[in-house]
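Backbones bend. Shown next:

***
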Amino acid sequence: MSDVRYGYQPNYAAPPGSLIEEQLSGLDISARELARRCGRSPKLIAEIISGKAPIEPETALQLERVLETSAAIWLGMEANYRLFLARSKEEAGLAKHIKWAKQFPLAELSKRGLLSLEKQPAAQVRELLRFFGCGSVEACQERFNELSAVAYRHSPSFESTEASLLAWLRIGDLRAEPIEAADYDRTAFLAALKEIRGLTTESIEVFLPKVKRLCASAGVVFVLERSLSKVALSGVSRWLSPRRALIQQTARHLSNDHFWFTFFHECAHLLLHSRKSIFLDGKGLSNVAAELEAAADDWASEFLVPAQALTRFITRFSYDEDEVVEFAARQGVDPGIVVGQLQYRKVLSFSQMNHLKQRYEWAK
């Protein structure tokens, strides 16, 4: 996201009429005489001087000839004055929406360098609108309502606040913007995923840049973004445009089995399901039909560890971790992924063999 700020904003702007009055005094002529020389009505000149009427380009040219001050100066003063009036009016309006803004995780967004913490209520609202790329609170809320109604819905046990979720999704947009990616190609994406599967044995420092590069080569942007404090979410897949998709993950449980299953689950949504939906993967989320989620689960499981091979392994499994390591090596995946699959199938308890999983840490 570009570091756009608004620069110096004076708390006062003089109407161009003040300069007109000053020049009239120096020339010792009246406003009525100025109106006669410009071919304008005395009423219009009086309203321009008082700031009630704006200086139009034609009038600026006439003032240029009579008062010998550039038309560009008159129009510049006029623009600055009108902008000041608009800002002043907006300031009061924005301040009324501070309660709306406070529902978003402003401090966390500031810590990530995505907005600045402001003291004044209007400034806080303005910063949040800039973050979301919206011109007004009404436009922003309309977009949120559209997203909520069409793309996802909450289950009764929803654990993420909607405001924090919307902010996290917006971070994905911003992180994705500068990433160059080819147009989406399903065949190329499947080929990239086969190569990515072979990276599951690598450390995150090694595989992460490769995953990003391989996904981008097929038209899918991959973003790893730590969740916000009130977002209980593992990942999301969605289409930014008909030719550009996004997978955004949180590494929520900080283990490789969960990371990779989430990744391929989101890939499955892109490969198998509608481009009109946003697929959220997290506890308490119910954004799509259960059969679509089950289909994504099945695809991810099969892609990581073929069910037939895993079933054969389970029938001979004597609960020796060396067997898990050897089986994982034959499948070309990390042992932690096999442990996760065995725990999911309840062959192992969730406390068994976790030392075979790779653990991740967020940089502080």
User: Anything to note?
Assistant: The mean pLDDT is 89. The chain has 17 helices and four strands.
